[in-house]
Amino acid sequence: MKKSGLYIILGVIVFIAGVVYSTIGMKKARVKVCMEFNGRTACRTAGGETVDRAKRAAIDNACALIASGVGDSIACQNRTPVSVEEVK
After folding, report:
1. Would you say the pTM of this structure is higher than 0.85?
2. Phi, psi angle pair for 60, to nearest 5°
């Protein structure tokens, strides 16, 4: 095998390892959030660097299930969650 091929393979392995490490390392906080919108309820768990970021991700995920359209999604995301629970 040529040196250039070896360098390409090594570069791909390092890149994949970096992506996996950053993804796993990012989730330092986990939060379960339940949202209610237009009579529908959804609960989702998400992780993030901080509790606030994890909470925002969980709210966005829950609202994606119960709201339809951009306007409803924004309205849902601006509501206060029914419950917020830190998950260990």
Report:
1. no
2. -60, -45
